[in-house]
Structures are given as C-alpha cells and as structure tokens.
Fold this protein.
Amino acid sequence: MRAARVTRLDGPAAIEVGDVPEPTGEGLVVVDVVAAGVTFPDTLLTRGQYQIKPPPPFILGCEVAGVVRAAPAGSGLAEGDRVAAFPGFGGFAETVAAEPNVVFPLPGTVSFEAGAALPMNYLTVHFGLVRRGGLHPGETVLVHGAAGGIGTAAIQLAKAYGATVIAVVSTEEKAAVARAAGADDAVLADGFLPAVKERTGGRGVDIVVDPVGGDRFTDSLRSLAPEGRLLVIGFTGGEIPTVKVNRLLLNNISVVGVGWGAFWHGRSEFLREQWNDLLPLLSAGRLDPPLGREYPLEDAAAAVAELDERRATGKILVKPRP
C-alpha cells in the first residue's frame, strides 16, 4: 500500500510517500482509509518534539475515517461499516489497523471528511468540558483560539450542552469562522478581558477553554466568575504560563489540566464511551467540523506544512485514495 512516512526529524519536508507493507495484527480492525485528519501533533512529530518519539521511519496520521475491511468477532464492527478511528499512528496510508475500542461507528449522515476531523479535537474537548470542567446548561464559556480545530469543537460542544459561548480570536475573519461554528459573540484577543467583562455584566465566565497559553493566561483567570474553571488544553502560543496561586483564592477559581491522552492511555474503552455520548449529537447534525483544504497522499508534506505554518482555515485532510 502507499503511505506517507517521516524519514528524518527535519520538519514536514521530511515526509516521503512510498510503498510499505499493509498493516496486520490479531484482534485488530482493518480500515480502508478514505480521509485522514492532520493534527498539531503531526507537526511536532516531524521534528521529534512530541512527547511520544517514535524512531523514523514511521507513518503519520492519528485520526481517520473509512470503511471496515475486516473486524474481529465480538468487536461490534463488521466488514463494510462506515467508521471513524483514532489509531494513534498510521493514518496517512491507504489502510490502517487499530484496536476495536478506538474505532467508532460513523452515522450515515456524517461524511468521511467530517468523520476524519472528529476524534482528536472533539473527544479532547468532550473530556475537558464534561469530565474535567463539569459544564452545566446555562453557563458561559470563553473559548480561546476559537477559529482553530479545538476552538470550533469547543464552541459546538458547549452550545450543544446548553452554554452561551464567547469566542476569542485574532482577526475579524476568524471571528466570522467562530460565529459560523455557533459562537454567540466574538471578541478580539487584544483587550479581550474588558470586552468579556462588559458582555457578562461584570460577572465573568464560568469556563475558559485555553489551547493557547502564553501571555493571555493571567487575563483568562481574571475573566472567570466565582467558582470558574480554566481548562488548560495546550500551548499553541508557545510559552507555558505560570500561575500565582493566590489568584485562585480570590474568587474560588480553579485551573484544571485537560490531559485527554494521558487519561485514556491504558483504558481505551473510555474513547468508545465518549463517542457514544457524541453519537446523538452527530446524528442530529449538532456537530459539524469546519473543513479546510484536501490534499492527495502524495502531497502529505504540504498538508502538514500548511498547519505547521498556521495558514490553515478549517480541518486539513489527506486523501490516501484517488
């Protein structure tokens, strides 16, 4: 089969496409891949900067959608099923194999392209908002990086669970993306704190979703209402912020780590539980990831470079099959 592999740790340009053996393994679900999502960890993996450091050569791609070719008995899956999957590696290929717990039924109303955009962002945000953040209907959620993959997933899920959403973005163009994803309001990152206070009547927000970090972190804490929660999801802004913990005492606020991968490793059945929670929302069309450019497998390096260079608008996809 054809696959895109990282052959050396020199960034996206080190991705090469060639023939490799098809994956095998007892007890695994074999999926013929229609679309694979490009994720931020893919960019880090090309430089050896991710917490998991496989030795080259290895196949990129941690989330896919496609059709089951073969499945083990008792898996709940069968040949011909439409699925999304989170194999961890191997998705930038014509075929991937994964354990049954990380392969999920895809409703017929959801395209393969949308299915490939769901697992990492939407399951991460589901873990953050529901399990770690304890989101309640009627609360207000502030979302940083709101035009990105995590951001749009957070907007849609928070709205689906009955929250009001304020998006924080860097440009008016990105504000339009956030509003299209369902945000009730959007404010620019520069000076977002007074804008948020104004829109909440001085009270602040109940939850901040922060995949950015950096120098806006302190103002995110200041934007919280009493007993508010700041969900730390990542640091795309580069700098890892620090907290003066006395700030947490003032309004009984919390800084909450959202380490989705660290939580489910060793308990992959949790992913299927999460997906089952999302299925009614998917079937009802409540979750609809914004999609960006599609690249053929031969151009996988360009697909990863687009995300790496922060040029992406919507989910970037790799299509392994013509």
User: Anything to note?
Assistant: The chain has two domains: 2-118+289-319, 121-261. The chain has a mean pLDDT of 95. DSSP finds eleven helices and 16 strands in the chain.
